[in-house]
Design a protein that fits this description.
By secondary structure, the chain is an alpha/beta fold. It is built from 11 helices and 18 strands. The protein has helices spanning 92-108, 123-132, 165-178, 205-217, 229-238, 251-260, 269-276, 282-305, 325-334, 339-345, 348-353, and strands spanning 10-18, 27-35, 38-44, 57-59, 64-67, 69-74, 111-116, 140-143, 147-149, 159-161, 182-186, 221-226, 242-245, 263-265, 309-310, 370-373, 387-392, 395-396. The N and C termini lie close together (6 Å). The structure holds zinc ion.
C-alpha cells in the first residue's frame, strides 16, 4: 500500500471540483499544487502559477479534491468488533499491535488526523510518533492518554482513576508527561460501564474546574465525555473545548456552547453500533436506546442554534471499527447539519479543535493532506466512502 517514494516533490492534482474544508462551496474545475509536503496552490485550475504545466499532473475526472479527513474521537487500542462489549485487548503488546492495525484502517478510509480519547497508557501517543517518523502508515494522532475518570466512573479500563480537586491537577500533569496533547475527562456515566447512570454527572464542579484550569494553563485542550444535561452543563461551565456525545442537551447547554465556543462531537456511530451489535449485552442496549433517541433531536437543536459540530466516530466501541468517518458525516447531515458544514466538521473544524489548523484545509501553505473522493461530495456524501487516493504531507499513501 505504501508507495511514498514514488510521489514526486511537486505534483499537480486536478478534478472537476474541490472542497477546501472551510465550509465554502465547491470550486469547479479545480487544481492543487503540492510542493515539498505543503500546498503551494489550491483553487481553479485556470489560476495555477505560471510554469505549472511543466509539473507532473494527475487527473481525477469524476472526483472531488478535499482535505484529508479528521476523526476527532477514536480509541486506537480498541478494534470495534461486534463480539464484545469493550474490545480492548488485555496486554499492552496486543494493544500496541491493535493500534498499528487500526491506524492503517483510518488512513485507508481517507483519515489523515485523529484525536485519540482514551487508551490505558501511552499506546496512542506511541503509534502517533511511529506515524510521524514514517515507521508505520496511519493518520497523525493527537492523543489524550488515559481518560480522567472517577472511582466508580465510566471506562476505568481506558482511564486514570482520579478523585478530588488537587488530584485532577496531578492527573493532567501525569498525562502531559506521557505525551498527551489534550485531556479527556469523563463528566457523566457511560453506556458501556455499570455504575453511574449515563444521564447523571460524575465529577463535582470544583473537580472539573481544576482539571480544565490546569490543562489550559499547560496548553492542553479538554474533551469531556458527557451524555446527560447536568454533566454537559458542568463541563461547559468549567470551560471544556469539546463535548463528546452530548446526547441530552437543554437550552442551558446550547447557550453555554454558544457562549464558550465549545464544539459538539456527537459520535452517532457509537449508539448505532451498540444497538446494532449482535452480541452487545441487553443491559447496555437498554442504556443506549433512550440516549440514541434523544441524540438526533439534541444535535438538530444545537446546530440550528449555531453550535459548531466536529466529526468523531468513537471508533473502538461495539460494532464500530476504525474507518467509519464517512458514515458519521452522513449521520450528521441526516440530523440536520448542512452538507458543507458536515464536511467542514470532518476537516477544518476538527483540525482547528485539535490544535492543528494547518491541516484539514486546502489552502496555500497548509500541509498537503488530501483525500480524492470518487464522486461529487457536495451532492452525494456517499462519495466519501470511495477514496481514490490519499496524500499525506504530499506523498501518496493510499
Ligand atoms: Zn470514546
Amino acid at each position: 500500500m505504501l508507495n511514498a517514494h514514488a510521489t514526486p516533490d511537486r505534483l499537480v492534482l486536478r478534478a472537476p471540483r474541490l472542497l477546501d474544508g472551510t465550509g465554502a462551496g465547491p470550486v469547479p474545475d479545480a487544481a492543487l499544487l503540492l510542493d515539498g509536503g505543503r500546498i503551494a496552490y489550491a483553487g481553479p485550475a485556470a489560476g495555477l502559477p505560471d510554469g505549472s504545466d511543466r509539473i507532473e499532473a494527475v487527473d481525477f475526472p469524476r472526483a472531488t479534491l478535499l482535505p484529508g479527513l479528521v476523526d476527532a474521537h477514536v480509541h486506537v487500542v480498541a478494534s470495534g468488533g461486534p463480539a464484545r462489549a469493550a474490545d480492548v485487548p488485555r496486554t499492552e503488546a496486543e494493544r500496541m499491535l491493535a493500534a498499528v492495525v487500526n491506524a492503517r484502517r483510518q488512513l485507508e478510509a481517507g483519515v489523515t488526523l485523529v484525536r485519540d480519547l482514551g487508551s490505558p497508557g501511552a499506546e496512542a501517543v506511541l503509534v502517533g510518533r511511529a506515524v510521524e517518523s514514517g515507521a508505520v502508515p496511519g493518520p497523525r494522532v493527537v492523543a489524550s492518554g488515559p481518560a480522567v475518570t472517577m472511582t466508580g466512573g465510566h471506562i476505568p479500563y481506558l482511564g486514570r482513576v482520579t478523585d478530588g480537586v488537587e488530584a485532577m491537577r496531578a492527573a493532567v500533569r501525569a498525562n502531559l508527561a506521557l505525551g498527551a496533547r489534550c485531556i479527556k475527562v469523563v463528566a457523566t456515566g457511560g453506556v458501556l460501564t455499570p455504575g453511574v447512570d449515563p444521564r447523571e454527572p460524575a465529577y463535582t464542579q470544583p473537580e472539573l474546574d481544576a482539571l480544565v484550569d490546569e490543562a489550559h494553563r499547560l496548553g492542553l485542550t479538554v474533551a469531556a465525555h458527557a451524555i446527560g444535561e447536568g454533566g454537559v452543563v458542568a463541563a461547559l461551565r468549567a470551560g471544556v473545548d469539546s463535548i463528546e456525545h452530548g446526547m441530552f442537551l437543554d437550552q442551558r447547554a446550547v447557550d453555554l456552547f454558544l457562549d464558550t465556543g465549545a464544539r459538539l462531537s456527537a459520535t452517532f456511530l457509537a449508539p448505532h453500533g451498540i444497538l446494532a451489535g449482535p452480541s452487545v449485552p441487553g443491559w447496555i442496549k437498554d442504556r443506549a436506546r433512550p440516549a440514541a433517541e434523544a441524540q438526533a433531536r439534541s444535535f438538530r437543536a444545537a446546530v440550528s442554534a449555531g453550535v459548531h459540530a466536529v466529526a468523531g466516530t468513537d471508533a473502538g466501541t461495539p460494532d464500530n471499527p476504525h474507518g467509519g468517518i464517512a458514515r458519521e458525516v452522513a449521520f450528521m447531515a441526516e440530523a440536520g447539519l448542512d452538507v458543507l458544514l458536515a464536511v467542514k466538521a470532518a476537516t477544518g473544524e476538527a483540525a482547528d479543535l485539535l490544535g492543528v489548523p494547518d491541516r484539514g484545509v486546502l489552502r496555500q501553505d497548509a500541509a498537503a493532506d488530501v483525500l480524492v473522493a470518487d464522486g461529487d461530495v457536495a451532492a452525494d456524501l456517499g462519495a466519501l466512502q470511495r477514496p481514490l487516493a490519499v496524500y499525506q504531507d504530499g506523498r501518496r499513501v493510499v
